[in-house]
Amino acid sequence: MKTSTLPRQQFKRLLAEQTLSREQILEWIKTVRCLIIGIGMLKGGTGKTTSTIFLALYLSLCLGLKVCVVDTDDNSQSVDNWYKARERRTPPEVVPFDIFTYDPKDEEGPDFEDVLEELSESFDVVLVDVGGAGKEAYWELCKSAHMVLLPVAPSGYETSRMAPTIKVAARGGRQNPNTLKVFVTMIKCDRRTTLPQEQRAALEGALEAIDMDKLKVDVYFADKEFDISSSPDYPRSWETTPKIPQLGEYGLLFRHLMKAVAA
Q1: What is the DSSP code (8-state) at residue 20?
Q2: 3-class DSSP state for residue 148?
Q3: Is 68 left (phi over 0), alpha (psi -120 to 50) or beta?
Q4: Which end of the chain is more exposed for a tag (fewer CB within 10 A), N or C?
Q5: In 72-212, at which residue ranges do the beta strands (DSSP E only) sit?
Q6: pLDDT per residue over 204-229, tens digit each?
Q7: At what angle do helices 248-261 and 8-18 cross, to 10 degrees?
Q8: DSSP string across 166-201
Q9: How far is CA 70 from CA 39, 121, 151, in A?
Q10: 18-57 in b/e burial notation, b at 16+ Cβ within 10 A?
Q11: Cβ within 8 Å of residue 111, ≥6 positions away
């Protein structure tokens, strides 16, 4: 779904009925001091880094927020590498958000909980890119996050890891003074095929099989109208930094999710 090609009436309806306005989002963030968002599935290659970068750019460029991205993926540190690649360019490219690289294996480093608390004092939004094998970091994140985004491509491999990921999120959420909300979101959706529709049904079945009352965590499946497409803008983002017109899908998704977070 490219927001620029949506029928005007449909786009206006989505904005009015299923999203928070920019002003409402900014006002809500003021009340919590800092919005903490986790992005990731306990599996590699799900699109978490792309989602992190596009959301960070949208929040900083379109909403004017002070954003810091925390890269906890000690295996690839993809966001960190993306950021440094721009610093090495001639002239250096200015990235509109900050980055903090956290190594969960560094036994002499600070506790992740302390890192999040310190960053919350200086930024409006902290986005955490959690590595596919970062179970401990994921749990620590969910102890203080307001929302966690689980990006899922139309593939059964992601579906199989959804329940274990939600269980870890719930474990941290039980110690969270905020009401943690977990969002499953479809990405890389090629609407020229029936695969997204088929996978959505499989994901719905997998979610229904989880005893949410026992886990005591709020889990939402983002409406299909907010699925992220398979636009070439996403794989191209490594070489070419996305501009505001390319941020529309993730911006609309964020505003949709915030309606539930702020409820």
Answers
A1: -
A2: strand
A3: beta
A4: C
A5: 98-101, 125-129, 147-152, 181-186
A6: 888 888 887 777 788 999 988 889 99
A7: 30
A8: HHHHHHHHTT-SS--EEEEEE-SB-TTSSHHHHHHH
A9: 10, 14, 17
A10: bbbeeeebeeebeeeebbbbbbbbbbbebbbbbbbbbbbb
A11: 140
- Which element (helix H / strand E) includes 220? strand 218-221
Question: Side by side, which strands form the sheet with 147-152?
Answer: 98-101, 67-71, 125-129, 35-39, 147-152, 181-186, 218-221
SS3 state at 128: strand
Q: How far apart are CA 206 and CA 200, in angstroms?
A: 10
Residue 240 pLDDT level (bands cut at 50, 70, 90): very high
Looking at this protein, which amino acid is placed at residue 240? T
Tell how strand 218-221 and strand 125-129 pair up.
Answer: unpaired
